[in-house]
């Protein structure tokens, strides 16, 4: 399919971390595309706030947001976490 290269990069890179410790390629921060940075935040939030096969509990939305914010600079991009936070605050209104 045409124009799917960018989407495939987002999916491939969304487990990369800004500190270079992610996978599959241990990319440095400047090599991770913005789409992957956004997808990483959304994927982490979803994983924390929903039941999963590997655990019997889920975290509260507030706790998940707090954990994401605690990982700014190592796992998540500060710029995109700020956008995520503003969206989550709007949802509370």
Q: Which stretches are poorly predicted, pLDDT < 50 over at least 5 residues? A: none
Order of helices and strands: HHHH
Work out the helicity level: 40-55%
> What's the multimeric state?
single chain
Number of helices: 4
Global outline? globular
Strand content: under 5%
Give your account of this protein's structure.
The chain is mainly alpha-helical. Helix content is about 55%, strand content about 0%. The chain starts with a helix and ends with a helix. The mean pLDDT is about 90.
Which features would summarize this protein structure in a list?
single chain; 93 residues; mainly alpha; 0% strand
Write a brief caption for the model.
53% of the residues lie in helices and 0% in strands.
């Amino acid at each position: 399919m045409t124009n799917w290269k960018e989407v495939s990069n987002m999916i491939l890179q969304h487990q990369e971390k800004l500190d270079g410790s992610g996978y599959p390629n241990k990319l440095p921060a400047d090599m991770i595309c913005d789409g992957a940075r956004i997808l990483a935040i959304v994927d982490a939030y979803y994983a924390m706030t929903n039941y999963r096969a590997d655990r019997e509990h889920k975290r509260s939305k507030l706790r998940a947001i707090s954990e994401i914010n605690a990982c700014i600079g190592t796992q998540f991009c500060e710029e995109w976490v700020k956008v995520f936070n503003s969206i989550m605050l709007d949802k509370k209104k």
